[in-house]
Amino acid sequence: MGILMYLVPIALTLGLLGLYGFFWALNNNQFDDPEGNAQRILRDDDETPPAKKD
To answer: What percent of the chain has a predicted confidence (pLDDT) above 70?
Structure first.
């Protein structure tokens, strides 16, 4: 039971650090990919790759 006195605050601290990091990433536009959208429209995904020759 005594170990919970250490584990609970450590778990809460790590959880809050992770949450802080996530919101920091959102506010600093870390999840934006404008270049990817520009390149994605140029790719033709419907085309099958050529067969390999032996």
So the answer is: 85
Q: Any idea where the domains of the chain sit in the sequence?
A: 1-28
For the chain, what is the radius of gyration of the CA atoms?
23
Using the structure block, give the residue that is written with the tokens 């170990």.
3
Q: To 5 degrees, how large is the angle CA 24–CA 29–CA 35? A: 155
Tell me how far the alpha carbon of residue 46 is from its chain's centroid.
27
Please state, in angstroms and rounded to a whole number, the distance separating the CA atoms of residues 10 and 4. Answer: 10
Q: Is 29 left (phi over 0), alpha (psi -120 to 50) or beta?
A: left
Whether the Cβ atoms of residue 25 and residue 31 lie closer than 8 Å to each other: yes
Q: What is the pTM of this model?
A: 0.58
